[in-house]
Amino acid sequence: MFVCSIITFGFAGGALILRNLRQKRYSVRLRCKVKDKYKYVPLFFTINNRNCKVHIYKHLPCKVTCSYYGLQHILEFIKRARYTLNLCMCMLTSNEIQDALVDAHNKGVKVRFIADKMMAENRATRMEFLKSAGIPIKTQVQTVETVIHHKFCYCDENYPSNRKLFFGSLNLTIQGLTSNWDSVIFTDNRFLILQYKNIFEDLWTEF
Ligand SMILES: [Zn+2]
């Protein structure tokens, strides 16, 4: 009986110690997250910006939340890429962004694009424009019940001072910039960039 009690208390005590250790480790992890040194900049888009199409075309922003500034943020991201630029994007129809990608390609940045096959075949996406400029584009082989629905872009993944990523729900379209509820997060978090890089490279190899 005495031996049984010791064993029971032994197990209970061990479990309690383990639980405390796990909680301690968890709280340490949480504290680390709070002290995260990386930057995160979210951008939000709303249907209230429907009238901002004309502000984008005329380069005349109407207010601080004008879609014009959202587009400029993305263009700046592309312009600052120095070595690589990798996009996995369901849809791209913005002429300004297409031009910025071609400019990056022409100045020697290694640009790669993964797009959804059905979207890429839609003339509105003008993938031919990017292809004819020399930017390699890949899509999934199977189109039945498959969609490349990702929306992310990262650059200079091997260069700590310049690597960046943006991801979210936003397609690179005027519709997304002005007439949807959408969001996108910009970050230099290297752990996130590494995970998106792995996903991108897997798809690039598979397609
Ligand atoms: Zn506006």
Features:
PLD-like_dom, 48% helix, Mitochondrial cardiolipin hydrolase, Endonuclease, Chain A, seven-stranded mixed beta sheet, 207 residues, lipid degradation, alpha/beta, 2 domains, PLD_domain
User: What's the architecture of the largest domain in CATH terms?
Assistant: 2-Layer Sandwich
Number of strands: 7
Q: Please give the alpha-carbon distance between the first and last residues.
A: 67 Å
Q: Percentage of helical residues?
A: 40-55%
SSE map:
Layout: H1 2-34, E1 40-45, H2 52-58, H3 67-80, E2 84-89, H4 95-106, E3 110-115, H5 117-121, H6 127-132, E4 137-138, E5 151-155, E6 164-168, H7 174-178, E7 182-187, H8 190-206
Parallel strand pairs: 2-3, 3-4
Antiparallel strand pairs: 1-7, 2-5, 5-6, 6-7
Helix pairs in contact: 3-4
The structure holds zinc ion (ZN).
Pfam family, one: PLDc_2
GO cellular component, one term: mitochondrion
Protein name: Mitochondrial cardiolipin hydrolase
